[in-house]
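Before surveying the methods themselves, we first show a specimen of the format, giving the amino acid sequence and backbone structure tokens:

:::
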Amino acid sequence: MTETQQQNSKPEQKEVKKKKKSWWRIARWFLIPLLLVLALAGGMVAGYVVLGKQDIGSVWQWSTWKHVYDLVFAP
């Protein structure tokens, strides 16, 4: 390969890397918050059902978490 051919092939490789990098950056913006929400939901279920030995149906009721909040932050 001549020097000209080597120089011409390098920018093409950089362009491919930029496309992969931008795809991963976009995926992180959606993947990380999704994983955080799933971890929160899993923690709520594990704490309320496994540790608290309560019914799984009441985990998703707003009144349950209002009651827990009132117990924790009661004056």
User: Anything to note?
Assistant: The CA atoms of residues 2 and 8 lie 10 Å apart. The chain has two helices and no strands.
